[in-house]
């Protein structure tokens, strides 16, 4: 028989302790943890963030309004109160991990770009032109140094 290498899929499971990003509703863009699974379409979430403006109160959330993240709070008991969730949230440094994630950085960059003034947009345009010019100059040097065939 041939040797077959079986890889396990990297699914993000809907599980108690899974951190999710809320995509729609009054808490759009905030993080919360799954505390209890209500049914196959809804979960009970609680977001005790360390930052005051990012706190999500405990409520039922349709899974269609959330994006699962790769972060999980291990050993979170089912239907845990806000206090234990907050302690485990801080212990696992969820806010710090989220700030370092690429998804967070991309949304932050897009938000910053969206709020630029006309002059700031002009400065970005000039910087991009300068970078493009330098890259083209470097490519021209490489092409000139390459042997002709």
Automatic annotation (TrEMBL):
Keywords per UniProt: Cytoplasm, Ribonucleoprotein, Ribosomal protein
Superkingdom classification of source: Eukaryota
Large ribosomal subunit protein eL14 domain boundaries: 57-132
Residue ranges of domain KOW in the record: 21-46
Keyword Cytoplasm among UniProt keywords: yes
GO biological process: ribosomal large subunit biogenesis; translation
Record InterPro entries: KOW, Rib_uL2_dom2, Ribosomal_eL14, Ribosomal_eL14_dom, Translation_prot_SH3-like_sf
Keyword Membrane: no
GO MF annotations in UniProt: RNA binding; structural constituent of ribosome
Signal sequence segment: none
Cellular compartments annotated: Cytoplasm
GO cellular component, one term: cytosolic large ribosomal subunit
Annotated function: Component of the ribosome, a large ribonucleoprotein complex responsible for the synthesis of proteins in the cell. The small ribosomal subunit (SSU) binds messenger RNAs (mRNAs) and translates the encoded message by selecting cognate aminoacyl-transfer RNA (tRNA) molecules. The large subunit (LSU) contains the ribosomal catalytic site termed the peptidyl transferase center (PTC), which catalyzes the formation of peptide bonds, thereby polymerizing the amino acids delivered by tRNAs into a polypeptide chain.
Family under the similarity heading: Belongs to the eukaryotic ribosomal protein eL14 family.
Name of the molecule in the record: KOW domain-containing protein
Source organism of the structure: Aspergillus viridinutans
């Amino acid at each position: 028989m041939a040797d077959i290498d079986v890889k396990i899929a990297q699914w993000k499971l809907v599980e108690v302790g899974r951190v999710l990003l809320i995509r729609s509703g009054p808490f759009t863009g905030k993080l919360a943890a799954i505390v209890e699974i209500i049914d196959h379409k809804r979960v009970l979430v609680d977001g005790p963030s360390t930052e005051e403006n990012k706190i999500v109160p405990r409520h039922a959330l349709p899974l269609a309004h959330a994006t699962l993240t790769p972060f999980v709070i291990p050993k979170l008991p089912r239907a845990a109160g806000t206090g234990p969730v907050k302690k485990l949230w801080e212990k696992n440094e969820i806010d710090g991990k989220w700030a370092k994630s690429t998804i967070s950085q991309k949304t932050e960059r897009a938000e910053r770009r969206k709020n630029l003034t006309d002059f700031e947009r002009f400065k970005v345009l000039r910087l991009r032109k300068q970078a493009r010019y330098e890259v083209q100059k470097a490519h021209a040097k490489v092409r000139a140094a390459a042997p002709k065939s």
